[in-house]
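Predict the 3D structure for this chain.
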Amino acid sequence: MRALTRAGRAYTAAALTAAVAVLVGAAGLVAGGSGAARAAGGAVVLDEGELDFTPRLVDRKLQLQIDDRSGDTTVTREPSTVVLHAVQESLQTTLSPVADALGTTDLDTWQLNGWESADLFAPEPGWKGTEAGGDTVVTLAGYEGPGDFGMATYTREMDSSDIPAEAHLGSTDAAPRAFTLPGDQERMPPTWLFTAEGVHRLTFTVTGGGATDTETLAVVVGDDVDPAGVLPGDGSTPTSPPPASPSPTAPAAHVIAEGHVDMAARPVDGDLEFRFKEGTETRYEWYEPGKVVLHVRPAAKRKIPAGYEFLGSVGDAVWWLPLQQKAGLLWPGWNTQEYAQNDLDGRISFRLDSVRGPGNVAMFYDDSLGTPVVSLDSGDGLPDAHTLKAGTHSHFNWAFTAEGVYRTTFTVSATLADGTEASDTETFAWVVGDDVDPGTVTPGTGDEPTATPTTTPSAPPSGTPTASASSSAWPTAPDGASPSPSDGVGSPAGQGGPGTAGGTGSGGVSPSGALASTGVHVAAVAAAAAAAVLAGGGAVTLMRVRRRPTAP
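Done. Predicted structure below.
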């Protein structure tokens, strides 16, 4: 374990909790507790909901316990019997005042109770001081992990009043090792910050009234490690997890789970064909849609925000692929760059004919006022269509309202310059979440009995549908210029272009500030984008995150 030092003295735990004696043979999830999942050694995985770390007197002895309110009732747990999971979607912009106070990187970090937490399904850890009979000193007595840990308070009110962040605990030399939890503190929910994916072990010592208790908490950050295979407390991850048994009937699908992929109209032998283009502008491969499975990873899960009720009720879960590229997630776009303007008579239509799956699928962007403009939505009837000019590359937000396997059937059509009507209809599969292994899913039209239609087409599909409201998202712009808000573009619906796809451009992962000595991998997610959809391709510039946000 990496020692924590200050003024040349090492801070070590007074007593580490006993290592778990038995590792169950199978680390698979089983039901336990108040509906929580079980991990290795019988530990409970806490990956969502409110919980408080509470020093309390039990039989006149001070004990640090967790009050878990993630279920229907409050359950008291020992920290050494749980695995806290800072899910991948908790990766957020690091506010500069917090980074300064903790002495950590200002690149994106995994945060619990961060400013974006209201939109996420993630743990919400707090500290409660009213059960200890007085003030309690909380000390970070030990830490080991792939990066750094910190805990600080920085609210929007503090930001608007120019009050610096208050650091409570941290593993860096600049961070404090202890803070006082007042005896009248009902709940203090600071931001917990981690700079790297992997397994972190935090040893807390609580002291009050002459009594003390030490507990070690295991925290799994991100999705590189399965929390179900991690021993709690001061244990370790299994050194050689059992290999997964391959399915002898697994279909030969090409699974795309992250990075850039375009749904493209492509001229082939004088005809129009619908194809997937995976990769960057200069390095890519073409695939037939019926041989591809697109995987929307669990990290895409978030809460439906106000103003997006067409997706469901505010606060409900939705799996959201953002318009801007986000590390670790699929970034699907549209591409007509294989066609020149003089190849066509008019625009290319992409029509969503049908959706089979457990929920609805929607594609949309935000206008200049932040109002969502919905281009495709299986929830209000199909077919829906949007159109693009030749030579266009664009991206949208995508949302799925439930986990499972979806089958989407698109018809791509255009009138060629000589008047010939050309079209291609293809069905391809999406796997949303982690309930289904995408490697076991048959591509194309599929064969699973659960893929029932979620909607019925509202009318027989026509040969060339009219452009939907989304057509305003691709205004004609002068060469080298960006469309203005008067062109109908707010949060850009069109972006991409040379050098930006597949994580190689400014929308990818920043290599700087990566704490190489600890092996940390920090994603630099673009927080602002400007786009111009041009006749020869969509040029884009993505700018890095704010250093100090303004108050809302």
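Confidence is low (pLDDT under 50) at residues 1-35, 237-243, 450-552.
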